[in-house]
DNA sequence: ATAATATTGCAACATAATCGCAATAAATTA
DNA sequence: TAATTTATTGCGATTATGTTGCAATATTAT
């Protein structure tokens, strides 16, 4: 399905690439000047995920957070990376660090979803 | 607050220690013969978590899964361990494997929530 | 047996996320 | 530029997960 450029998409993507953090739908909505419907934001976010522009993280609060692979002024983040949720500033950050583990080789790993919780470098 | 023994608690704990898997509230409810209210199951599960008997995992579906630290006939599982969600049999398993990562020391890690997705040893 | 209070069931509530459908708007074509 | 196609949006309704208040019940201790 062909994509079209809309103010909504641009606004959503702009917020995420600027902060470089993983944000929830309502946090994104608050950061955008224009009014965008909740359902629309979710659809835009999910479409970006399908297209490999964004990725989705589910935190221990059960909510979905979305983050760009490209933060402005930084290198692109790897597909398999860690996430850090700070309990102080309540942001979720993508870390340039791989997750390592050793499990029996009978297991076939397709995806890694790893969220660390604690105090981030700005708040410690 | 003192705890009391009830049929509900026993039934819930029995299911989880027998399977050794992480289960959601509705999965637990289905496995129990007697009828137990949804809210009650959640309260029992959360109380067990508070008491360190169970632990809670949030999977990428945003749902909570609960697992015992002690599976019958197996060694106790460590606090910081991996979880594996099989896409075939749709179970969540606690793995006897630690998560390793290296991040800047400014970060203070309090908790690790790591769920691998793929095909488990029984389904591969 | 009685009293104290932990536990339960029920209903209501809160929140996250999705979906159908009609209206709108972007991109393509004439 | 105008017309056409169809991707996108907004709205409302819906689903699902999880929690909470409150009265009724059941467990434990006296």
UniProtKB/TrEMBL annotation, chains A, B:
Cofactor(s) needed: Zn(2+)
Keyword Metal-binding tagged: yes
Signal sequence region: none
SUPFAM superfamilies: Winged helix' DNA-binding domain
Keywords: Metal-binding, Zinc
GO molecular function, one term: DNA-binding transcription factor activity
The record's free-text note on cofactor binding: Binds 1 zinc ion per subunit.
Binding-site positions, Zn(2+): 86, 89, 120, 123
Name recorded for this polypeptide: Fur family ferric uptake transcriptional regulator
């Amino acid at each position: 399905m062909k994509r079209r450029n809309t103010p909504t998409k641009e606004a959503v993507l702009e917020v995420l690439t600027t902060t470089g953090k993983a944000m929830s739908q309502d946090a994104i909505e608050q950061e955008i000047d224009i009014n965008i419907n909740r359902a629309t934001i979710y659809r835009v976010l999910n479409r970006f995920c399908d297209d490999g522009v964004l990725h989705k993280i589910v935190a221990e609060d059960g909510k979905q957070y979305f983050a760009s692979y490209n933060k402005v002024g930084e290198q692109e983040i790897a597909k398999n990376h860690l996430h850090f949720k700070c309990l102080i500033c309540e942001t979720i950050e993508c870390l340039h660090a791989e997750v390592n583990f050793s499990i029996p080789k009978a297991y076939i790993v397709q995806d890694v979803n790893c969220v660390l919780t604690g105090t981030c470098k700005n708040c410690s």
